[in-house]
Amino acid sequence: MQQNTVSDDKQNQPVGKLTLASPPEGSDAGRDSVPDAQKERTVSIPGAVTGDGIQNSAQAAVASKTVAKDGDSTAPITLVADSRDGKVSAGSNTHIVSLEQKAAANFPEGAETPIGVTEFVATVETAGDSAKFSLYLDPNTDVNGYWALNSAGVWVNLASESYGGQMTGEGEQVRLDFSIQDGGEFDADGVADGSVSFISGAAARMPLSIVGQTAESAPDAAGF
């Protein structure tokens, strides 16, 4: 069994009708080394607007979708890449290639993962860059951070001051700010190649009482 602990000081299924964001014409019309066929995998909720007042579907660095929640309900989420206080940085060439929901696995007993795990792939302008992200959630989603398993097998909160992130409210939404370095320990391929693949993070509630507990088994995927 793997020992999964929580560091309190460092702190699959899409649901609903989704619409593909319209890509530019040509195989790589944006000339950003991201094939347009890949960009088409990024989905947006029609008419969804976050932070800057621009429709999410019109921004390559923003993706929004409806996901399943515990209790057979659904909720919207929005991911912003190259984020500055929840808005895309001016002149950004960052793209979100894909955004997916997966069932949570290997979380310690007692952890609550109301929307499972969010997996995403995004480009960065320069290989090796540390990319800043913001994840917007429904305010009724009861979480206390954006948690990921580090290389030492410890669950840490990327949306905490210790990791350069934060959890804040914006309007009627909760916003989780966090950073992932291209080629760093939270980039799935571990290679500084201009693409961040993040597969192990979850907006979750981790009670301090679970510190030091062992995850007995992966939770059942039922309900997602």
What does this structure look like?
The chain has 224 residues and is mainly beta. The chain has a domain at 12-137 and 179-200. 2% of the residues lie in helices and 37% in strands. The strands form four sheets. The protein has a six-stranded mixed β-sheet, with no helix packed on it. It has a five-stranded antiparallel β-sheet with strand order 4-5-10-14-13, with no helix packed on it. Strand 6 (83-84) and strand 7 form a beta hairpin. Mean pLDDT is 74; it is low at 8-47 and 211-224. Residues 28-42 have a biased composition (Basic and acidic residues). Residues 1-54 are annotated as: Disordered.
Strand order of the largest sheet: 1-12-11-15-9-8
Sheet with most strands = 6 strands, mixed
Topology, number of strands: 15
Helix/strand-derived class? mainly beta
Measured between the Cα atoms of the first and last residue, the distance is 25 Å
| Spans of at least 5 consecutive residues with low confidence | 8-47, 211-224
Please report which band the strand proportion falls in: under 5%, 5-15%, 15-25%, 25-35%, 35-45% or over 45%: 35-45%
Order of helices and strands: EEHEEEEEEEEEEEEE
| Overall pLDDT metric | 74
Helix count, DSSP H or I runs of 4 or more residues: 1
**Share in helix:** under 10%
Radius of gyration over C-alpha positions, nearest whole angstrom: 17 Å
Q: Tell me, what's the shape? A: globular
Biased composition (Basic and acidic residues): 28-42
Region (Disordered): 1-54
Quick overview of this protein structure:
This protein is 2% helix and 37% strand. It is mainly beta and 224 residues long. The chain is globular, with a radius of gyration of 17 Å.
